[in-house]
Structure formats: structure tokens, C-alpha cells
Design brief:
- By secondary structure, the chain is an all-alpha fold.
- It has one domain.
- It is 92% helix and 0% strand.
- The radius of gyration is 31 Å and the shape is rod-shaped.
């Protein structure tokens, strides 16, 4: 073989080594992204459970308020105690509404994270495809 052919083969081998290393890096990155996705999904599931519990508590408190209001209407003499109970329940409902707003806010932040992660995964996929095509068609850096 001529010296020029050997240099060309050496350059192609170097290019192939660079592409292989890039593919390894992309694989490691995608593994880390997958781990982060699993963590985010677990947190989102936990938030959904908390939100369902909060909604259930709010519904229970609302039914208690309705019962207390009915008791007040039927028992005018005991309205002071019922008013105190209603006031406490309203405070509890307000606290639950605040918690629900916090959970909804956290949930919206997780949705934003999902979008960014999907965008990165798509970009990585395009890079892997491009690297594969370069190797497949033997395109060199010359």
C-alpha cells in the first residue's frame, strides 16, 4: 500500500474512533436522562396522590359545612357553637385550597421539565442518527 493510502485509512480510523466515542457519550447521557425521567415520574405520581387526598378532604369538609348549615337553620339556639365550627371548617378549607394551589403549581413545573427533557432526547436522537449516517456512508473529515 502506498503511504497516502495508509494515511487515509489512519484518518478514517481516527474519525471512526471519534464517532464511536460520541455514541458512547450519547448512550451514557441517555441513561442519565432516563434515570432523571424515572425520578420525575415518581415525584409526579406522589404529587397526584397528594392532590387526590386534598380534593377528597375538601369534599368532606364541604359536606360537613352543608350539614352544619342545616343544623343552624333547624337549631337557632345553638347557632353560636355551629358558627364556631363553621368558622373552623372554613379555615380548614382555606388551608386545603392553599395546599392544592401549591400542588398544582408543582405539577405545572413538572410538565415544563418533561417538555425540556423530551426536547433534549430528540436532539440526542438526531445526533446519533447523523453520526450513524456519517459512519454508514463513509463520510470523512477530509
Amino acid at each position: 500500500m502506498s503511504d497516502q493510502t495508509q494515511k487515509r485509512i489512519s484518518i478514517e480510523q481516527q474519525n471512526l474512533a471519534v464517532v464511536i466515542e460520541s455514541i458512547r457519550d450519547v448512550y451514557e447521557l441517555s441513561t442519565r436522562i432516563d434515570e432523571r425521567l424515572q425520578s420525575v415520574m415518581k415525584k409526579q405520581d406522589e404529587l397526584e396522590v397528594k392532590m387526590e387526598a386534598t380534593i377528597s378532604q375538601t369534599n368532606t369538609l364541604a359536606s360537613k359545612i352543608m350539614l352544619l348549615e342545616n343544623l343552624i337553620k333547624t337549631n337557632e339556639g345553638t347557632s353560636e357553637n355551629a358558627s364556631e365550627e363553621i368558622s373552623k371548617i372554613k379555615d380548614s378549607i382555606h388551608a386545603l385550597e392553599m395546599k392544592l394551589q401549591t400542588v398544582e403549581h408543582d405539577n405545572s413545573q413538572h410538565k415544563d421539565i418533561w417538555g425540556k427533557i423530551l426536547e433534549v432526547v430528540m436532539q440526542v436522537g438526531v445526533l446519533v442518527l447523523a453520526a450513524w449516517l456519517l459512519v454508514k456512508f463513509g463520510v470523512s473529515a477530509n
